[in-house]
Design goal:
The complex is a heterodimer. Chain A is mainly β. Helix content of chain A is 4%, strand content 26%. In chain A, the strands form 2 sheets. In chain A, strands 1, 4, 7, 8 and 9 form a 5-stranded mixed β-sheet that branches. In chain A, strands 3-2-5-6 form a 4-stranded antiparallel β-sheet, with no helix packed on it. The radius of gyration of chain A is 18 Å and the shape is globular. In chain B, strands 2, 5, 10, 11 and 12 form a 5-stranded mixed β-sheet that branches. Chain B has 4 helices and 12 strands. By secondary structure, chain B is an alpha+beta fold. Classes of the chains: A mainly beta, B alpha+beta. Chains A and B meet through strand 5 and strand 10 of A and strand 1, strand 3, strand 9, helix 4 and strand 12 of B. Chain A: Pfam families: Dioxygenase_C (PF00775). Chain A: Its EC number is 1.13.11.3.
């Protein structure tokens, strides 16, 4: 790395990724994982959809993680997503008050998933979005994407990522509004309507 | 599991099913193509290819469009530059000792796995969540869909969690998992491994991977490990046996340091 100063630490080679495999289901999902919104919070939104493979078939063994800000655009630094119960060795669930910004959900047999979180607020030049990390059996390295949630924000015109995408690709990142503060977002791992996936540098 | 299921003899490979030799040839082709690229000046690949045909489940589950680059240096407000936080309520003391989660002791070889969680600059990732899961000593997961006719162990579930220390350190006590068969091809076996899930100081650093044990004769046959086509990168998935970590009359010690890829916003000297 010729751009580094002689005293900078030597970069460490990263540990390679591996597939999550088929048997994470008794280890990673946790009660309350999809329910990131505090109880009865007025900014609660439901986001749901399906994960589909290159043949359009549902992916019944994907795990999705969502990370996003509260309605003011603030990213919490708050633990308590998977509160453990030291009495039973089980889970207590979230405390219903704190917002951790983190949701985890496994797909069902139809490849469907749903989370309830707070409507994300805009940050900087961005339209409001939730960051998504996708894991699945058969997927050797997780995939990052974003679900843009339509709202009051001027949104999509100025967002640096969306603005750089051709319209048909951009559409794969936009959730569709449904009644009752619910948004639909399907993830296509492969194929003509393949979701835009991201690489951060 | 019923008695009848347990006593079914292994079926010969159905006509048309891929053999290990078929998979070996495909893995060799991938390896040769990778090494040819290196010789021609390509950068080493740290991560597995998503379209690695010898791992057949990847066929319909990898994107065909290149990923869209997000340069976080130009985008300090990207949510992905920060990470979910976990705290003392998310982990109990027993979570890091998988041998003490039931009434009795699990069967198998008791081991410890310890090391440090670091970023690309070698800086410790502090106070973050590590999750792990694994098969039992017989190579069976405590998962309804695992139909490998090997015994479940009522004293072993195989799930653990821990928060890293201020120096990025972590330690688990568990038992050494067994190898197990899977259906990628005829006579396919996974080398013994432990699944790890790791959070960094940024969501960009998220990692799920598998740790292997040194000297496993199944490495060369396994398309999941070989999906990492770079030899040095594969070696980073193998823990080291460390006799100084073995505890007399108790457990064998393995060391495995984990380095997270991906950019982060800033590194906070005094922790969170």
């Amino acid at each position: 790395m010729s751009t580094r100063t002689p005293h900078a630490p030597v970069p460490h080679a990263p540990t390679p990724s591996h597939t999550i495999g088929p048997f994470y289901g008794y280890a990673l999902p946790f009660p309350g994982g999809p329910e990131a919104a505090p109880y009865a919070h007025p900014d609660t939104v439901t986001v749901h959809g399906r994960v589909l493979d290159g043949a359009g078939a549902p992916v019944p063994d994907a795990l999705l993680e969502f990370w996003g800000p509260d309605a003011d655009g603030q990213l919490p630094q708050q633990g308590g997503s998977l509160r453990r119960d030291p009495v039973t060795g089980g889970f207590l669930g979230r405390n219903g008050v704190d917002f951790t910004g983190f949701a985890r959900v496994a797909t069902d047999a139809d490849g469907h998933w749903a989370i309830r979180t707070l409507r994300p607020g805009a940050r900087g030049p961005h339209a409001p979005y939730l960051s998504v990390c996708v894991f699945a059996r058969g997927l050797t390295h997780h995939l990052f994407t974003r679900v843009y949630v339509p709202g009051d924000s001027p949104a999509t015109g100025t967002d640096p990522l969306l603005a750089a995408l051709p319209p048909e690709r951009r559409a794969t990142l936009l959730a569709t509004a449904e009644p009752h503060a619910t948004y639909r977002f399907d993830l296509r791992l492969q194929g003509p309507d393949e979701t835009v996936f991201l690489e951060f540098s | 599991m019923s008695e009848s299921t347990r006593t079914v003899p292994r079926q010969p490979a159905p006509a048309g099913e891929l053999t290990q030799a078929d998979i070996d040839r495909r893995m060799a082709r991938e390896r040769e193509a990778y090494e040819k690229g290196l010789a021609e000046g390509a950068e080493p690949s740290h991560h597995p290819r998503r379209d690695y045909a010898p791992y057949r489940s990847s066929a319909l589950r990898h994107p065909t469009q290149p990923p869209v680059a997000v340069d976080t240096r130009l985008d300090p407000e990207a949510a992905e530059l920060s990470s979910p936080a976990f705290g003392d309520t998310d982990v109990t003391e027993l979570d890091s000792d998988l041998t003490r989660q039931h009434q009795g002791e699990p069967l198998g070889e008791r081991i410890t796995v310890s090391g440090r969680l670091l970023d690309r600059e070698g800086r410790p990732v502090r106070g973050q969540l590590i999750e792990l899961w694994q098969a039992n000593a017989s190579g069976r997961y405590a998962h309804q869909r695992d139909q490998h006719p090997a015994p479940l162990d009522p004293n072993f579930t195989g799930v653990g969690r821990v928060l890293t220390g201020d120096d990025g350190s972590y330690a688990f006590t568990t038992i050494k998992p067994g190898a197990y068969p899977w259906r990628n091809h005829a006579n396919a076996w996974r080398p013994a491994h432990i699944h790890f899930s790791l959070f960094g100081s940024a969501f960009t650093q998220r990692l799920v991977t598998q740790m292997y044990f040194p000297g496993d004769p199944l490495f060369a046959y396994d398309p999941i490990l070989q999906s990492v086509t770079d030899e040095a990168a594969r070696a980073r998935l193998v823990a080291a046996y460390d006799h100084d970590l073995s505890r007399p009359e108790r457990s064998l010690g393995y060391r495995w340091d984990i380095v997270l890829d991906g950019p982060a916003a800033t590194w906070i000297e005094e922790g969170r």
